[in-house]
Predict the structure of Cytidylate kinase.
Amino acid sequence: MDKGIQIAIDGPAAAGKSTIAKITATKLGYTYIDTGAMYRALTYKALEEHIDVYDDEALTHLLERIDIELTPTEEGQIVRVDGEDITEAIRSQEVTSNVSATAAQPHVRELMVEKQRLLANSKGVVMDGRDIGTAVLPNAELKIFMTASVEERAERRFAENTKRGINRSMAQLCKDIADRDKADTERIASPLKQASDAIFIDTTSMSIEQVADEIIQHAEERKRP
């Protein structure tokens, strides 16, 4: 029986990775794994327990003792930490402003990569993040690196924030995203970069469905004998 392939999707903040990865996984009948939600969950818990998001050792100890659970449902993915539903809480501005610091810690990333590889232990997986094709699933059959202009990504984030009742101006969002790009690409541990064998997709002028269909087309080509 065809168990599918591993699909790694990387890219900067608000490039549409999670939305497109979910659609791709659903259409292919694959498992979707949102690694960004895992870092957000750790950040949420660190803030709740007043742990410094720059303290690699303390964050690593926290990650070792908490249970992060990702559960797909018809309404979307449910994120839980130690049984608590934090799906909406991890999208708060406070978490968003601090997650880059958490994700930059070397030992945190090392342990997260271990956890993420265990989740993707079988074929038929779509995983998105910032170092999936380069660090987490370096042998994935299909690697995608997607991006969009800062302005386009800010507009997408603005729409998301509006739905959640978060008040953030377009100018501030552009700055937030540019700062996040800088932090992600310049960090020492697993910086954001395109894998040498990844397919580059600029989603600026593409619809969500168009991007998902292009990835599915590439996936079908990889599955052919």
